[in-house]
Amino acid sequence: MRTVLITGITGGIGCRLADLYLKRGYKVFGTCSHNSKSLQQFQMKWPSIEVFQVDHDDLTNVRNVYSNFFRKVKPQIIINNAGIVKDSFLVQMQLTDFQKVLTVNLTSAWIVVKEFLQQLDTNDTSKYRIINISSISGLIGREGQCNYALTKGGLIGLSRLIEHLKQKHQNIDSYVIAPGLINTGIKDKMPQKKIANLKNNTLAKRLGTPEEVAKFIVKLSEPDISYCDGTVYRIDGGILK
């Protein structure tokens, strides 16, 4: 049985991923923040999924949770999906908001990758795939998303660095998903005028759905997908500007 670890599993995209992987016979594990309000509801819907709570403000806790997990489980698929937003402009950004988004979105993802690689036997020939969920903001630097854009761009850099480890870990591939505006809880924190403008600036003229993103990620997980190492896949409805 193939296994998958999904960080931020109780969010909009995380829930859809969990459901799709279960339907394909995967053993699914996930993590969520300590203050996740949707964990109880998630566990009622998918009781077979083991979910670990992580305090993303405490990097020692983050390291311990993932280190202990990877000692016991070597998932074939790792999806760095956890993320938060605290939007502001570059000059107006508060240091505390900058650091919190950096910690959750990028530093924690780096720790996940680091702890996994440290636990991996160099003689292990199994195939592994690390999929980092970035954003269109990480590619084009959305105005008013200073910290978020930086961290999502950093995830692209992290994936490229993983690919540079091929000499030691030929069996690991890393891909990046860069969604546009998706109809998740993050969208609910945005002004309606901004959402309308973003819709109008896409060929699709609508928001993306978590299901659309999740289906694409699951397809990328298939063992027969190859020769696209380090690729960034945009799922943005055809952003015009």
TrEMBL record:
The keyword Oxidoreductase applies. Gene3D superfamilies: NAD(P)-binding Rossmann-like Domain (3.40.50.720). GO terms for biological process: fatty acid biosynthetic process. Pfam families: adh_short. GO terms for molecular function: oxidoreductase activity, acting on the CH-OH group of donors, NAD or NADP as acceptor; quinone binding. InterPro entries: NAD(P)-bd_dom_sf, SDR_fam. Keywords: Oxidoreductase. The keyword Oxidoreductase applies. Belongs to the short-chain dehydrogenases/reductases (SDR) family. This is SDR family NAD(P)-dependent oxidoreductase.
